[in-house]
Amino acid sequence: MFKILDTRQLASDVKWFRIDAPLVAKHRQPGQFVILRLSETGERIPLTIAHSDAKQGTIELIVKAIGKTTIMLCKKEKGDTISDVMGPLGKPTEIEKVGHAVLVGGGVGTAVIYPLARALKEMGNYVSSITGGRTKDLVVLEKELGDISDVVHATTDDGSHGFKGTVADKLKELMEDKERPIGAIYCAGPVPMMRAIAELTRPSGIRTIVSLNPIMVDGTGMCGGCRVTVGGKTQFACVDGPEFDGHEVDFAELWDRLSAYHKQEKIALDHMDHECKNAGN
Amino acid sequence: MPLTPKERMQIQRHDMPEREPNVRNRDFDEVNIGFSEDAAILEAARCLQCKDSKCVEGCPVEIDIPAFLKAIEEKDLHKAAEILLSSNALPGITGRVCPQEEQCEQVCVRGKGKGEPVAVGHLERFIADWARENYDVKQIIPPPTGYKVAIVGSGPAGLTAAGDLAKMGHEVTIFEALHKPGGVLIYGIPEFRLPNKIIESDIDRLRQMGVKIICNAVIGRTYTVDELMQEEGFHAVFVVIGAGLPIFMKIPGENLKGVYSANEYLTRVNLMGAYQFPECDTPVIAGKNVAVIGGGNVAMDSVRTSKRLGAENSTLIYRRSRVEMPARNEEIKHAEEEGIIFKLLCNPVRILGTADGWVKGLECIEMELGEPDDSGRRRPVPIKDSEFTVDCDVIVMALGAGANPLLPSTTPDLKLNRWGYIEADEETLMTSMKGVFTGGDIMRGAATVILAMGDGKAAARSIDNYLKKEVPAPSR
Lengths: 281, 476
Ligand SMILES: Cc1cc2nc3c(=O)[nH]c(=O)nc-3n(C[C@H](O)[C@H](O)[C@H](O)COP(=O)(O)OP(=O)(O)OC[C@H]3O[C@@H](n4cnc5c(N)ncnc54)[C@H](O)[C@@H]3O)c2cc1C
Ligand SMILES: Cc1cc2nc3c(=O)[nH]c(=O)nc-3n(C[C@H](O)[C@H](O)[C@H](O)COP(=O)(O)OP(=O)(O)OC[C@H]3O[C@@H](n4cnc5c(N)ncnc54)[C@H](O)[C@@H]3O)c2cc1C
Ligand code: SF4
Ligand code: SF4
Ligand code: FES
Prior knowledge:
- The complex is a heterodimer.
- Chain A is α/β, with parallel strands linked by helices.
- Chain A is built from nine helices and 16 strands.
- Chain A folds into two domains: 2-89, Beta Barrel (Elongation Factor Tu (Ef-tu), domain 3), CATH 2.40.30.10; 100-258, Rossmann fold (3-Layer(aba) Sandwich).
- Chain A starts with a strand and ends with a helix.
- By secondary structure, chain B is of the alpha/beta class.
- The radius of gyration of chain B is 23 Å and the shape is globular.
- The N and C termini of chain B lie far apart (56 Å).
- The interface between A and B is large, with 42 and 41 residues.
- Residues 59, 61, 63, 65, 88, 94, 98, 100, 103-104, 120-121, 124, 450 of chain B line the site of one iron/sulfur cluster (SF4).
């Protein structure tokens, strides 16, 4: 059992957690994730480790409630427990001196780029972060990214907050700034967004690293469920990634594979509502 | 009055009572029911108590088979359990999944010519199940030696070594990557063949002996092997991580939705309980028409699972003929009874998909058997222009497993063979790293439960030797 030490609501559907997980905290490096399971009947889901403290033995997670497991997790409070937290998993990000690093996050992906922004900044890079959403309420971690980046840009499709347009539109602007050429771009978010960013930077060849989010089960390279095609080759995102060269990724395939369980995900949600009603709340 | 040999020879072998095929293929309860006590006693009486008992040599963990059969015949089940458990820590498991027909039973003298061997495996299962209810193992644990041994992986190799090392007084910690211990026994082999409660009770027995099990610990990530020895104070490490790497065919269409590796398919169903979805959260795609590719135990388990998940047609596709199938006879027989369709002598060439990315069929080519290959089996060769399509919406690849590189890639001093399996001294099972031992599937390539257990036993002995000879006694 892993104990939740602290929580904070970051947006209506995004929650921050600090969890007691000394073995994970000890070796964790930026870019790595955990797989957790809430209970005996729960699913195993991957979540990026936003921050860790080896001395305290704690890790931090930022979770967006989008389906049964993440909704149930976001209902948990300080003092509650999680059955299993396994990790750290995945290859750590190669944190290098690139000069100007641009971090692009959309939705849940913002949680993934947050630790990278921090590590890239600590490495001495100039860090610009872009966090976007369709509308004001969907822009997350703007303040948190602001605290660790040199500059943060919020974007909304409808212009209700910050820059009006997509994160790709904002990135295009930054790319045009000849004063501050971009050394590398780190991007995480919905697949169409990552694809748009990769297409945008392809002509210039700016290094574009994307963090992929296929469906996972074990996280150790045992099941092959997380397979993605990169540079024409099958790779297992949980051990070979989750970060890959965005210009090589077959996004169409990834996008399609993510829809494999849509029917079951809906059933799971209905079942959860049913369970809650039966429990009288 | 003991029976005369002649009387013994007249007793017929007892069949394992089984549940009705058309009932059992709709649920995940165990297929085999097990012997009644009367049947067990009579079956045990078939044993001729050979002086030069061949059956014992056929058993990789050298169970004193005649002695435990004699105890059953004499209705001393307690004694039978004692004998069995003294050389086999997991009899409930081996009694169910051991390929007995190729081991102890193959060499039993009663099986010579037209005869049928004594049903050693079924009797082992009988005693193990009896012992679970009625027998308290009073393990006499010697005073602690102060030596600490880490075991990486909780499959049959790791569990067996853990039990033996604990009995020698060493402090044992098992590190397991998944959230539940048991290895393939828990995530791979289905409930209907090996119920999880059997494995759990064997593992509880180890815990009672003081074995510590740390789950969710991926060695190579959570700790490296070097750290276990240098920082965590373990004097020896037994690396038994199994052959956990799925093999795909590299044919077009493999990443379509509805294509699974057997590892993923079975893990979703067995470890995660997807057959109970939505009571359990993990889903699995239950196809109407399921094609499983392969001919081993893994393929049989997958195809029988698909039937139980409700498939109308569950088809097994194998490139050789029935006699070359590596699966156990019992599994093939059970699959046939349960209505599995066998398409033999054909090989998949590509997977066909719908416009929205789902599997819709499997194109195969017919094969014929040519000259024998390296394995001694006749090599299947494609027949020109014989392509045909099997309609299906789920495909499971059960083509065997390779060596998972996660741990080796973070342990540079560990010498591997050219297929990525860990090399070890044949006798001591010590790897190229001092104090690091290995065995089971990560040394042999995908093998069997009982061979993994045999390695676990041998390694425990060898680790004990190594500690006493080479490692200064820890101050306590
Ligand atoms: C390496 C990695 C890091 C991630 N980091 C974070 C993070 O820091 N914060 C965060 O909020 N989310 C993160 N995710 C996504 C998170 O794992 C999914 O949101 C979660 O699994 C959804 O589960 P659910 O039961 O709540 O929703 P479901 O109803 O099961 O699924 C909703 C959608 O999420 C996707 N999904 C479903 N199951 C999985 C799965 N096992 N793995 C990945 N995606 C899945 C599918 O596209 C699905 O349509 C990460 C994913 C990966 C692969
Ligand atoms: C579906 C299926 C059916 C089978 N049926 C039979 C049968 O009927 N009869 C038979 O005799 N054999 C059968 N086998 C083969 C048999 O199960 C294996 O030979 C045996 O389990 C090997 O044991 P092991 O201890 O070497 O490894 P495994 O059982 O594979 O266990 C290895 C364990 O190590 C863990 N691990 C891996 N990497 C790490 C790491 N880095 N850190 C920590 N832990 C790690 C894994 O999660 C796993 O729990 C079957 C196999 C499968 C897949
Ligand atoms: S462990 Fe296997 S080989 Fe040994 S006696 Fe039992 S069934 Fe036979
Ligand atoms: S070989 Fe057969 S008959 Fe002889 S002792 Fe062994 S089980 Fe009994
Ligand atoms: S999640 Fe199973 S191989 Fe990556």
